[in-house]
Write a structure and sequence with these properties.
With 542 residues, this protein is α+β, with helices and mostly antiparallel strands. It folds into 3 domains: 2-102, no CATH class; 113-307 and 421-457, Alpha-Beta Plaits, CATH 3.30.70.3180; 316-409 and 463-530, 2-Layer Sandwich (Gyrase A, domain 2). It is 51% helix and 11% strand. It is built from 22 helices and 11 strands. It has helices spanning 11-17, 36-44, 53-62, 69-76, 80-98, 121-128, 160-163, 168-196, 205-220, 238-249, 254-270, 272-275, 281-305, 325-334, 342-350, 354-365, 392-398, 421-425, 429-449, 472-482, 489-505, 526-541; strands at 2-3, 7-8, 111-120, 134-138, 149-150, 153-154, 229-237, 316-320, 383-391, 405-408, 463-471. A hairpin with a 3-residue loop joins strand 1 and strand 2. It starts with a strand and ends with a helix. Bound molecules: flavin-adenine dinucleotide. Flavin-adenine dinucleotide (FAD) binds at residues 135, 137-138, 140, 400-403, 477, 481, 486-487.
């Protein structure tokens, strides 16, 4: 029997391997029925062995007496407690195998799924701030109503420092007022949305009801405070989780630090070796380094910038772009197909006319028949920096992008709030404003004593300022996805604004950004719901 490239397996070896690999013959295969740490340890051997992975698994794991493999893997098939024993067993073996390797990248080879339920939006954003190696999923403010009560209490985080202070009653009264307003406005707003956009004969009742509910929840989400409880699910690799735990430990928020400890406890049961340094002295020192630097820099910023008066800014401002962008991109397009140096190709490109450069760019991008046909790495050669001032609701959505640099200022009420024009038109803006104004007073009051905790009061309708630095390749992904019809109107406007700014300075570079949607829609979700109807119908017919 042939294995992968040239290695041979006996019948007996094949039988031993078969439960743990998806095939015995081909050079592409998957691993199965193995604890995460064994998969990590196994892959880690790739860098120091001439053998194929199946051969390593056989020789160094399955048939190595010291590995105690049957016990490790045999127990995994058992119940929950057996699995824990198995993982501990695997850990001990993993440590033995890896002694002397000390390579951080090994911890990227195993992962875990972690659910974090009933956490505030402050904590959810802290988790989702991780980019590389982490894939989050969060409960949506669009599809789920946020006005449920448990034991007569709305679902928001009672921040312990606030609750132990003289602000406790006011904090609860303000947040209750926000949730009461959200609850009270839901039915009248839904009926207004339905009156303004009646169902046509092409739209099913299911699609119409879903799209109008989504629109209503989108319009009301501005009332939800950062204390609103949500659920976040994360899949990540060990290295990303370990770094995340350090960052959580450095947070100024008690809730986030406790969340980090709780996650450590769970990860210790799944991928202990990969996250163990977060809780060692080295991990603690790292967290202290992060928090001390942040606090010192904040203090310095305060001293330096306090005398400067703020000026009015636009919603989306293009702060920086590259004057040589076209030359860099065209040279990078030609580079992999040539054997000249990049410098020499750049010199050549400098001599080209605009239409010659455009022709090269158009050839490179080719015919894009969907937005998923994205340009290649040459488009990573130029960057744009935007300064955005928009409501927290939009920030929460856009923050989830990972292939760019984003950094925000504090959640505050100082930049005012946004009232969706639909609420004005529905004559429901007054109670909306009242609840937001009340929240601002409470936030400012708490801010004088507990500036970090005061951020929990800030509702999503208030503006936050953040910067985004992204390359042109991500611009294509971001602008086309976030301007698409089913998106929220505010972030659609941000994506459209970014597009207009770039087109003004680099028209050739965005000439192929064909799937940007510059229209406005009444019911953003309707087309998506209609597509879902078609799929449901097809499935019924199958
Ligand atoms: C209309 C709409 C509704 C949404 N609703 C929800 C919701 O209800 N709940 C929710 O949690 N999120 C929701 N999202 C957010 C969404 O799941 C993504 O988090 C968000 O779009 C950013 O991720 P991205 O992968 O698109 O882009 P980026 O993070 O900017 O990445 C760009 C591209 O790089 C690649 N990439 C990046 N990271 C990885 C990775 N780890 N592995 C593989 N490839 C990667 C992918 O090709 C990706 O498209 C919604 C988004 C939209 C547009």
């Amino acid at each position: 029997m042939t294995v992968g490239s040239d290695e041979l397996l006996t019948e007996q070896e094949g039988r031993l391997l078969q439960p743990f690999v998806t095939n015995l013959e081909r050079s592409v295969f998957g691993l199965r029925n193995l604890p995460e740490v064994v998969k990590g340890a196994l892959f880690s051997r790739y860098s120091r062995s001439t053998k194929g992975l199946r051969r390593i698994l056989l020789d160094e794991f399955i048939q190595a007496p010291e590995a105690d493999f049957t016990r490790i893997v045999g127990n995994v098939a058992g119940g929950n407690s057996d699995q824990l024993v198995a993982i501990q067993q695997a850990e001990a073996f993993y440590d033995r195998v890896l002694i002397g390797y000390g390579d951080d990248s090994v911890a990227e080879l195993g992962g875990a799924h972690i659910a974090c339920e009933g956490i505030s939006n402050i904590a959810a954003k802290a988790l989702e701030d991780s980019r590389l190696g982490i894939s989050p999923l969060e409960k949506s403010t669009r599809y789920v109503p946020f006005n449920q009560k448990i034991n007569g209490r709305y679902r928001y985080y009672r921040e312990p420092f606030i609750m132990a202070s003289s602000h406790a009653l006011r904090y609860e009264a303000t947040l209750d007022h926000l949730f009461d307003t959200y609850t009270a406005l839901t039915a009248p707003l839904l009926s207004w949305v339905r009156t303004c956009t009646p169902r046509d004969t092409d739209t099913s009742e299911r699609a119409y009801n879903s799209a109008t509910r989504a629109k209503t929840f989108d319009l009301l989400r501005g009332l939800l405070p950062m204390a609103t409880l949500t659920n976040v699910g994360l899949f990540g690799n060990g290295r990303a989780f370990e770094y995340m735990l350090v960052k959580l430990a450095a947070s100024p928020h008690e809730e986030v630090r406790s969340l980090g400890l709780a996650m450590q406890q769970e990860l210790d049961q799944l991928i202990p070796s990969f996250v163990k340094r977060a809780k060692t002295e080295r991990g603690q020192q790292y967290a202290q380094y992060l928090s001390a630097n942040r606090d010192r820099t904040a203090q310095l910023t305060h001293q330096q910038l306090k005398p400067i008066e703020p000026t009015a800014t636009s919603f989306v401002q293009l702060v920086e772009y590259d004057a040589d962008a076209e030359i860099k991109i065209v040279a990078s397009i030609l580079y992999p197909h040539s054997d000249l140096t990049l410098e020499r190709i750049k010199e050549y490109v400098r001599g080209l006319s605009t239409s010659e450069k455009a022709e090269i760019i158009n050839t490179y991008v080719g015919e894009r028949s969907t937005r998923f046909h994205r340009p290649g790495r040459a488009f990573e050669e130029t960057y744009y920096t935007f300064d955005v001032l928009a409501d927290l609701g939009a920030y929460r959505d856009l923050h989830r992008h990972r292939v760019l640099t984003q950094e925000r200022q504090r959640y505050s009420v100082r930049h005012g709030y946004v009232v969706p024009p639909e609420l004005e038109a529905a004559n429901l803006a007054e109670p909306y404003r009242k609840a937001l104004d009340d929240a601002a007073e409470t936030a400012e009051l708490i801010h004088t004593d507990l500036p970090d905790a005061a951020q929990y009061v800030v509702p999503f309708a208030y503006r936050v300022r953040w910067r985004m630095t992204l390359n042109l390749r991500e611009v294509y992904h971001f602008v086309e996805l976030r301007s698409s019809r089913q998106g929220h109107s505010t972030y659609r406007a941000i994506a459209q604004g970014m597009y207009h700014h770039i087109r003004a300075v680099h028209p050739t570079l965005v000439a192929n950004l064909t799937f940007v949607d510059l229209n406005n829609y009444g019911l953003e979700r309707l087309a998506a719901e209609q597509r879902l109807d078609t799929k449901l119908k097809q499935r019924r017919q199958e």
